[in-house]
Amino acid sequence: MWSSSSSGGWHLLATFAGVSSYGAGAGGGVDIGWYAPASTKLNNITAVVDGTGGVYDFIYNSSDTTRYGTYNWCNMPHVRKTEYVKAAKEYELVYVELIHRHHKRTPYASNAFPVEPYHWNCDDQGLYFYGKPIDSKRKTPAAQTYWKGYLSAINPFVPSGWIGTCQFPQITTAGLDDSWQHGADLHDVYHDLLNFLPSRDSEKWRDRVVYRVTNNLITSQVAGMVINGMWNASREVPLLVQASTIDSLEPKYPCAKASFLFDKIKSNERWKEHLNAAKPLYSLLDNISGVPVTDNGFHEGLDHYYDNLSARQCHQKPFPCKIVDGKNDTSECITQDMANKAYRFGHWEYSHIYRDAGEMALTASVASFGVWIAELAEHLREVMTEKQHVLWYHNIAHDGSVSRLLSVLQVDEMVWPGMGAEVVFEQFYKKKQTSGGGGDGGYFVRVLFGGRVLTSSNPSLGVMDMIPVETLLGYFDGLVGRGASLVAGKCGN
Ligand SMILES: *[C@@H]1O[C@H](CO)[C@@H](O)[C@H](O)[C@H]1NC(C)=O
Ligand SMILES: *[C@@H]1O[C@H](CO)[C@@H](O)[C@H](O)[C@H]1NC(C)=O
Ligand SMILES: *[C@@H]1O[C@H](CO)[C@@H](O)[C@H](O)[C@H]1NC(C)=O
Ligand SMILES: *[C@@H]1O[C@H](CO)[C@@H](O)[C@H](O)[C@H]1NC(C)=O
Ligand SMILES: *[C@@H]1O[C@H](CO)[C@@H](O)[C@H](O)[C@H]1NC(C)=O
Ligand SMILES: *[C@@H]1O[C@H](CO)[C@@H](O)[C@H](O)[C@H]1NC(C)=O
């Protein structure tokens, strides 16, 4: 299923490429206007509603990566040795920054049905959580303590939502395995294949790599496994984290204007039409799950049902049946068809919120994720001024982070980024050709999404395969300002 072409996309053939531009402005000759994404089944409400069978050719029921390159909600494709396309030999890789969503997890408590038919337990792992003095003169190391969730026989209170020994959310054991493999695959490419990263055998990698997480603990749960997949580290590794109220990666800094715009996007005419089109599905799901029609969280979009059902499916747990007098009524259960429709709606919603809603979508993402964009831009700059010697900057984040990034990059086919969904920025140095012509040298960037070159609808970015770094920086600077100087203003702070 892997496309041999260098261009990305999920093989949903575009019927036309959108070209309308709003507010195109200059960023050093770079067009920073919004351009419509391709028109595909993903953002076609008729196809969402009428679609029968599956969810395009997407996978929802296993982390298996045999059909690599295919969208897999449970375990998205990432850079991997067997499929990796090497750059032409005149390009020397000098820096890699990547960001990916955490791996598969239990659902969030807020996504639970009023009565869940089964417990969800996590006794097969520990969440290691402890403080330890670094360089303590007293040499008093901490014990390796971990959280063990349990159900008290005495406590009469029942949590709303999921019941079990897991945290909701928590990366599941299968998600931890996927995280380790993700790290191992990255090392296979960037060490074994490219000899860019140091080997595992020495400690040389330690001051060449940076790992960053968000304040949501599930990203740290993933980090431990990803890092050992990459390095099999024999001692501790720091994880950068910003203060919880201003974290640019999650993102969490105050940005009223972005919230206002996202609310507007989720209440415009197209959004209302899609909720209307979803009514028959809602009445089926509500009836079986017992979610009241007045529950706004479940009814402002299909997001909660999507998360609720897909988390079960990725972990081979059954769809719930109607619970009548505390018993399953197995004649009325949520079906795969219902789930598939919810999933198709989910992709439509992500495409609408982050891409189709026009300039507003771009502005909202730029404002709410602009600080991280400016941080990335500065890293790319520092490589060129040789101010830094970090080779590898690794961000572990959320669908909200990856979606906003895809929105800023104006990806031509927007999907809901599934578990582990990855965007990689590879920065290359191209030597000046001394004879025979063929280029002026300089720095270039290739952007990979799901392991393949990302295509942007914005003509200045286009197929993001070796675009001059100045173009990308001009684009970023034009939108967020150097040092994120435009972000506070765009947030209305
Ligand atoms: C949307 O999908 C429907 C049904 O599959 C199709 O008839 C229609 O042409 C599509 N619209 C666009 C704009 O592609
Ligand atoms: C997942 O679904 C596909 C298509 O519906 C099916 O062929 C496959 O056997 C399923 N895999 C698992 C692990 O359930
Ligand atoms: C699914 O939704 C139900 C109904 O609100 C909720 O009780 C349950 O916790 C949700 N489960 C997940 C995994 O989101
Ligand atoms: C990891 O390192 C340990 C020694 O610290 C070694 O015994 C083990 O085989 C290594 N595991 C892998 C998967 O390389
Ligand atoms: C729920 O399903 C039952 C059984 O199919 C049906 O009798 C009832 O009318 C449904 N309720 C709603 C609100 O759709
Ligand atoms: C109810 O159904 C679920 C599957 O939806 C199953 O896991 C659970 O064991 C059932 N409970 C009872 C009491 O039959």
Automatic annotation (TrEMBL):
Domain of life of the organism encoding this protein: Eukaryota
Protein keywords: Signal
GO MF annotation: an example: phosphatase activity
Signal peptide: 1-21
Entries under InterPro entries matching the protein: His_PPase_superfam, Histidine_acid_phosphatase
Name by which UniProt lists this protein: Histidine acid phosphatase
